[in-house]
Amino acid sequence: MSLYGNGKGYIGKSMSVNAREAYLNEEMPESKWSKAVLIDLAMSTNESLNEALLKKVSLKALRSICLNETCWHHTGAFYKRTYFYEFSEEKVLNLTNSHLESLIETRKNFLENTKAERKEQADFKKAIRDEKKAKEDQKAEWLKLFPYASQKTEGGFLRACESGKIDFEKLNNLRKDDYLKKIEVLEKNIKANSEKLIGLDSKDFSDEKKAQLKASYESNLNYATKQAELLKKELEAF
Length: 238
Hints:
mainly alpha, 10 helices, coiled coil
């Protein structure tokens, strides 16, 4: 099935036949050309270049001085257009170490001149992330009280929290009472299973039956103990 011009169709749903042929001809999207590959090819092509300088050149600049755009092909779904590049021996043969030093210095000056601006942008983005996290943490704390609220949905409860219509002290007290009741039940469970374990040896059961009961009592005891400890720890944070 031909798509556009001399298109040769698609390989499955991943990319066009032309795109696959481009890969075979050592043409790739710009993002596929890594710094290590470009440096290796550049050193093999122009032995006068200083490898240490090449490593200091940014990847973006390396791609600019080592690659030529060849064509575009369809890749992925919805006929996505992707531009392909090839390594240019001609470009690299014309490169000098002075050119590399100039690129490095230009980049260094740019970073220095924009340092304050970039810090400001980074601080701004961090402030947004921190604010978003604080809101998410606040909602998570509010939702712990949802089971004790009159609202039917979490969304309705959160909106009520945001509008100041929730009596947090009242709900916290309800939650505290609920935890205390749960802890009381768990402690009774702990006591009951502990007593069963102590009295198991006096029972007229087979060894197999005793082993089964012991495993069951110990499992219940361990679970109840862990749950009680967890609830007590959460209760301390109220």
